[in-house]
Amino acid sequence: MAHDRIRPLVRRSELPVVESPPGIFRTTLAYDEQTMLCHFRLTRGARIPLHSHPAVQNGYMISGRMKFLMGESKSFEALPGTGWCFLSGEPHAAEVLEDSEVVECFAPMRPEYL
């Protein structure tokens, strides 16, 4: 496994924060080729457009409130303590209803988040 494809131990405070899309701040935490853990700070009013990706996405809402859209018609509201899982290729989007903090795990890891 190439060294740039593994980060087994980190401190969030020592890592860069990337804003993408606007109002969504991601810190890529620990990862290997199989899984990736990310921390997100999301600003009220920010939106994540409808998209899908090969990785399964498991998430947990630490604080705040978000509305998730799955495909064209199904939606749910995430509050603190809510967990979710989007399957590989499953379309999803989000609207940030309050400033929020989320942790998500992707499997396999997302190379574009390195």
Overall average residue pLDDT: 95
Task: Give the end-to-end Cα distance, rounded to a whole number of Å.
Answer: 15 Å
- Overall, the morphology is globular
CATH level-two architecture = Sandwich
Give the tally of β-strands.
8
Q: Nearest-angstrom radius of gyration?
A: 14 Å
Count up the helices. Answer: 0
Strand-residue fraction?
Answer: over 45%
Query: Largest sheet at a glance?
Result: 8 strands, antiparallel
**At the fourth CATH level, what is the homologous superfamily?**
Jelly Rolls
Question: What key attributes describe this structure?
Answer:
single chain, 114 residues, mainly beta, Jelly Rolls, globular
Description:
The chain has strands spanning 18-19, 24-31, 36-42, 47-51, 56-70, 74-78, 83-86, 92-107. By secondary structure, it is mostly beta strands. It has a single domain, classed as Jelly Rolls (Sandwich), CATH 2.60.120. Strands 1, 2, 3, 4, 5, 6, 7 and 8 form an 8-stranded antiparallel sheet that branches. β1 and β2 (24-31) form a beta hairpin.
Concise account of the structure shown:
The protein has strands at 18-19, 24-31, 36-42, 47-51, 56-70, 74-78, 83-86, 92-107. With 114 residues, it is an all-beta fold.
Strand and helix map with partners:
Elements: E1 18-19, E2 24-31, E3 36-42, E4 47-51, E5 56-70, E6 74-78, E7 83-86, E8 92-107
